[in-house]
Amino acid sequence: MFHTPSTLTIKPCSPADFDTILGVINDAAQAYRGVIPGDCWHDPYMSSDNLRREIDRGVSFSGARYGVRLLGVMGIQRVSDVTLIRHAYVLTESRRSGIGGALLSFLTKQSTRPVLIGTWKAATWALAFYRKHGFTPVDEETKNRLLKKYWVIPDRQIETSVVLADKTWIACPSAGG
Predict the structure, then answer these.
(1) What is the pLDDT of residues 53-89, one digit of tens each?
(2) Which of 15, 97, 119, 130 is disulfide-compatible with 135, CB 3.0–4.6 A?
């Protein structure tokens, strides 16, 4: 199913979207199966308890819809002096149609702070996507420091992740760290 960004409606999700958000995340996360380390994979990838915990920690989701159907979700979290892009997923059948880029643009326009994104090192498609949209990976030492400062994730995930920063953070890394 192919949709162009011009046929989408992007807006914040509501509490009524919880189950649909969870469905989108777990469908899209199948791309990570066999790619990320096996000890980091869960089935389902995200449980409803984990999603609730992320929302309780301040992750606010927005969604891309075609009509009433939610095709993609992406979270934003304001932590201290930065904005984090969290949990970016597009339904498997709707990938490569501009939905992720539209969501990323929608969310980054809402931030006046430096924007950071964390993802799996092995997710080469995600790294390419974020680079295409102007984000730059930070060095290993900086990555470790940022993940410990702004994210609540296990040490194993820190080892196997990468952080990308927007131009604001790259121009003045002390502004975000």
Answers:
(1) 999 999 999 999 999 999 999 999 999 999 999 999 9
(2) 130
The whole-model pTM stands at 0.92
Tokens for 63? 């969604």
Give the model's pLDDT for residue 176.
Answer: 58
Q: What angle do helix axes 18-28 and 48-56 make, rounded to 10 degrees?
A: 110
Contact between 130 and 97 (Cβ < 8 Å)? no
The architecture of the domain spanning 5-175 is 3-Layer(aba) Sandwich (3.40)
How buried is 45 (Cβ within 10 angstroms: 0-12 exposed, 13-18 middle, 19+ buried)? buried
